[in-house]
Design a protein that fits this description.
Keywords: Signal. InterPro entries: Cellulose/chitin-bd_N. This is Chitin-binding type-4 domain-containing protein. The chain is mainly beta. The protein has a single domain, classed as Coagulation Factor XIII, Chain A, domain 1 (Distorted Sandwich). The protein is built from two helices and seven strands. It has a four-stranded mixed beta sheet with strand order 3-1-7-5. It is globular.
Length: 182
């Protein structure tokens, strides 16, 4: 089996995003400091929502940074940014079912999807097109997780791969979570 090292890339991203929270397990690159990693502290790690509705839609035409940063901002959470230190938070093996946790600090409805993007270069930014190619499935086959119950930590499992040899040989992948409204 191919060893897949996982660095965390995204948190609450998409052109439809409007939630507050962060990827707790595996820790997102913006939240790793909360779990003992020697990474920069981001007290706003639960606010990667594209700058907010007004900024995203009225100033940036619906565009959002791949990690939830403002489209017209510094992109601190993407490769090359302040929080993208190259530290790998978890190690997984292709075919493994992994436990994921999302901490919602403000629930606005919608659902989550988890995606990965194979990437051997920690200074190269992932693209939405790459993430769209590798949508992860829960063991039951669903790609969407609908959180119920408001602001809390939500747990799920996803398969790192659902088809043999789905991913190119790589030493590292970026994992992302999308929070979409229904």
């Amino acid at each position: 089996m191919i060893l897949i090292w996982t660095t965390i890339l995204l948190l609450m991203i998409s052109s439809f995003c409007n939630g507050h929270g962060y990827l707790k397990e595996p820790p997102s690159r913006s939240s790793m400091w909360r779990y003992g990693f020697n990474t920069p502290t981001n007290y706003n790690d639960n606010q990667l929502f594209c700058g907010g509705f007004d900024v995203q839609w009225n100033h940036n035409g619906g565009k959002c940074g791949i990690c939830g940063d403002r489209w017209d901002g510094s992109r601190d959470n993407e490769a090359g940014g302040k929080y993208a230190t190259g530290i790998i938070s978890r190690h997984y093996t292709e075919g493994q079912t992994i436990h994921v946790e999302v901490k919602l600090t403000k629930q606005h409805g919608g659902y989550f999807e988890f995606r990965i993007c194979p990437n051997n270069n920690p200074s190269r930014r992932a693209t939405q097109a790459c993430l769209n190619r590798y949508l992860l499935r829960q063991p039951g086959g669903s790609t969407r997780y609908f959180p119920k119950g408001g602001s809390q930590t939500y747990s799920s499992s996803v398969d790192v791969t659902t088809r043999p040899h789905m991913y190119p040989m790589c030493s590292s992948v970026d994992i992302g979570i999308q929070k979409l409204h229904t």
